[in-house]
Amino acid sequence: MRRSAAILLALALAASACGQAGGDELLPKGETVLCSLGGARDFKAECQLDRSVVEGAQVFIVRHPDGAFRRLEVSEDGQNLLAADGADQTQSALKEGRYEVILGPDRYVIPAEADAAAQ
């Protein structure tokens, strides 16, 4: 019984230590964007944005610090970002050169054009 408890404690400590490694090493180096995750009140510059074109459509992948991500697609008229997969629908609008997006409990501020410094 003690041996099992010791093994479980060692595994828990190892998992905890891995989670405290800063996390940034695991994020791909994309463009940093503001996000408010899980219903948080304040925005933080902690999400990473990858831009690509898939079958002629502009696609954004927003990566959260915990490894979760959201795929968004620019609408045909370029005025909104739409959820590319999943059950949640986006609420979004293009304002002053940036998309303001609400998707489930998460909110994002995404520049419409790529940041030249991040390229």
Descriptive overview:
The chain is α+β, with helices and mostly antiparallel strands. 15% of the residues lie in helices and 43% in strands. An 8-stranded antiparallel beta sheet has the order 5-4-3-2-1-8-7-6, with no helix packed on it. A hairpin with a 6-residue loop joins strand 4 (69-74) and strand 5. It is globular, with a radius of gyration of 18 Å. It starts with a helix and ends in an 8-residue tail after the last strand.
List segments where confidence is low: pLDDT < 50 over at least 5 consecutive residues: 4-25
Structural class: alpha+beta
Mean pLDDT: 80
Alpha carbon gyration radius: 18 Å
Written as H for each helix and E for each strand, in order along the chain, the element string is: HEEEEEEEE
How many angstroms separate the termini? 55 Å
Report the sheet-strand fraction: 35-45%
